[in-house]
Amino acid sequence: MFKQHFFTLSNGNKIPAPSTIGTGSIYYKKNEKDYNPHLTEYLIKCFKDLKGIVHIDSAACYNTYPEVADALKENFEKGYKTRDEIWYTDKFDSKGGKDSDPITHVNETLKKLNLEYFDLYLIHHPSVSEKIDKDIVGVWKDFITLFEQGKVKNIGVSNFSAKDIDNLVEKAGFKPVVNQIEWNPFLFNQSPEIYSYCQKNDIVIEAYGPLSPLVSQLNGSDTSKEGKDFKNYLDELASKYKVSNSVILLAYTIDMNVLPVTTSTKFYRIEDAHNFINDHPELKLTKEEINKITALGLNHPTARRYRGWTDHYNEFESESQKLKI
Ligand SMILES: NC(=O)c1ccc[n+]([C@@H]2O[C@H](COP(=O)([O-])OP(=O)(O)OC[C@H]3O[C@@H](n4cnc5c(N)ncnc54)[C@H](OP(=O)(O)O)[C@@H]3O)[C@@H](O)[C@H]2O)c1
């Protein structure tokens, strides 16, 4: 029987890890009209061929609802996965102001996707567009209402600093269960100890961009010695455990108690991430290996792939905030 890996949220609910099919980044589109049949086809293939739970990471601003809707429709018609075998995360476009408020967004999107609830709903960004007639606390209060109505099973945030989270908890008395941030070993020193803050406060960190250290090697944007040393070590572990270097980096992320949110245009990579992380107990990095990956990551200068989007973290960068090992 397939062994599904879960993280436990502070409310006791279990969230499957990793998320292997993000519908943003490489699948992001400027508008919904430019339909991408490749994404629909991949989602359907995931429903059909992946064992266990398929964890989809979606958002209003990715403009990919038409593809997600078509894939879900075909899935339920063909009977590949039941609703319980799909974990669907969505995000409110707080920064871009695509929808006026979370309640309208959720009601309209559930209708579009023909779903009864989202498994997880996140505020995409701590800043709020002028197009939205509420401040961040007002947005969060709508999230609490949606949670109480059962339209979203869990609520959380994305790209929040510790200060941003404290503000919500203080003013609305309800703690997010997840903070989805850009996270990988080259970003240990972002925000004042956001990693330790979330671990200490029992908030699951979801990492987007978990593979950035490899992506930047592959596309040639990182030619540093530190970047090469890092990749060489992942390659060494990849041959030891007979998996790809990206699977090693995802396994490391999970070992650091962080839930990776990845994606790919290649089905074998989605499948590898899903199968190796979930069902291969032999892929267990040793404490020394984990510490060495951390040390090599700390050696590398901070390298944010999503610059412009998360620049608010820059004010916190300093040597003193680096993770201690
Ligand atoms: N909350 C937010 O603000 C936010 C921001 C950004 C992203 N996200 C979410 O997170 C998801 C994933 O983000 P991401 O794309 O940055 O994740 P990622 O896992 O760091 O990067 C995915 C990329 O890695 C490449 N890759 C996979 N294996 C590789 C390897 N062995 N060597 C080199 N490259 C490799 C893939 O290329 P191939 O296609 O060639 O396999 C793919 O383009 C998004 O789809 C979105 O849902 C959220």
Structure summarized in a few sentences:
With 325 residues, the protein is α/β, with parallel strands linked by helices. It contains eleven helices and ten strands. The protein has an eight-stranded parallel beta sheet. A two-stranded antiparallel ribbon has the order 1-2.
- Biggest sheet strand order reads 3-4-5-6-7-8-9-10
Q: Main beta sheet, described?
A: 8 strands, parallel
Uncertain segments are: none
- Stated plainly, the CATH topology is called TIM Barrel
Silhouette: globular
Number of helices: 11
The mean pLDDT is: 93
Give the proportion of residues in helices.
40-55%
Listed once per kind, the bound small molecules are: NADP nicotinamide-adenine-dinucleotide phosphate
What structural class do helix, strand and pairing data support? alpha/beta
| CATH-level-4 superfamily name | NADP-dependent oxidoreductase domain
Tell me the series of helices and strands, N- to C-terminal: EEEHEHEHEHEHEHEHHHEHH
Per CATH, the class reads: Alpha Beta
**Domains counted in the coordinates: how many?**
1
Binding site for substrate: 124
Active site: 62 (proton donor)
Keywords: Oxidoreductase
Domain NADP-dependent oxidoreductase: 33-296
Question: Your description of this structure?
Answer:
By secondary structure, the protein is α/β, with parallel strands linked by helices. It has one domain (about 15-315): NADP-dependent oxidoreductase domain (TIM Barrel), CATH 3.20.20. Helix content is about 40%, strand content about 15%. The chain has helices spanning about 35-50, 65-80, 100-115, 135-150, 160-170, 195-200, 210-220, 225-240, 245-255, 265-280, 285-300, and strands spanning about 5-10, 15, 20, 55, 85-90, 120-125, 155-160, 180, 205-210, 260. The protein has an 8-stranded parallel beta sheet with strand order 3-4-5-6-7-8-9-10. It has a two-stranded antiparallel ribbon with strand order 1-2. Helix 4 packs across helix 5 (about 160-170) and helix 8 crosses helix 9 (about 245-255). The longest helix is centred in the last third of the chain and has 17 residues, at about 225-240. The relative contact order is 0.14. The mean pLDDT is about 95. NADP nicotinamide-adenine-dinucleotide phosphate binds near residues 124, 218 and 262.
